[in-house]
Fold this sequence. Notes:
Elements: H1 29-34, H2 52-59, H3 63-79, H4 91-100, E1 111-115, H5 123-129, E2 134-139, H6 142-154, E3 161-165, H7 168-173, E4 183-189, H8 194-201, E5 205-215, H9 219-232, E6 239-243, E7 252-258, H10 272-281
Parallel strand pairs: 1-2, 1-4, 2-3, 4-5
Antiparallel strand pairs: 5-7, 6-7
Helix pairs in contact: 2-4, 8-9
Amino acid sequence: MTHDDITADAVTGPGGTPPGPSAVQPTDADAESTRPDSAPSPADAALPPELAPAALTLFGDRLDLAAAYAELLATDGVVRGLIGPREAPRIWDRHMLNCAAVAERIPSGATVLDVGSGAGLPGLVLAIARPDLTVTLIEPLARRTSFLIEVVERLGLAKSVRVFRGRADEAATGSSGRDPISGDVVTARAVAPLDRLAGWSLPLAVRGGRLLALKGSSAAAEIEEHAEVVARLGGGEPTVQLCGVGVIDPPTTVVEIVRERMVGPARPAASKRSRAGRSRRR
Length: 282
């Protein structure tokens, strides 16, 4: 992961949950055909009718709040370079529902740390779908944390969501006067290969906590390649979990790793000369 030179304190916003726009909105074909291709439109975030049952299952009575976030992704997120313009019409199937399905692997009332949160995927989606969770969005880049802070405030999620500007290792060890943080569950989506991701994420999990890494077709191959590294980092055997089976198609592929052991930083071995010197002094 990369980060800016300046690290700010964790930021929270005002509480309260304002009502969002209607989740399912008709698309104005005429307006769509006349607007410039480069101009993002709220219509891009409209929930396709065929996905409405899955969205209702995953978000329940917070579906309008999910729709408000989808609209922010399709407009401000595109303008600010956090979501590609071609992704805007696919926000619900490729992003919102894909992330929300992971909630089934998270225990009730858990604390969740979302590493490399970017535009808030999956952390903000999980906070919307599961109001019982306490979520910290960990993101090093200033323009992304600015967007996250604004979204948290606009959606009224500050009682359960905070934004930490910095790298994962800074969050785990503490920096700039901030205390280290840890959580029951660490999530990550499209951040890094499994070995590096485990190195960044497992130190953030409490013992017995877990890493949930959203992966694609590479999941099994990454497990085979990096299982030994994961074990050295204190992780248990990685497993592949399919989330949202029977609700979304295809289901979300998640690599799950339990933190079984607390592994500290490696210490350099003392040289023979040093050990001999200590013996002579005694």
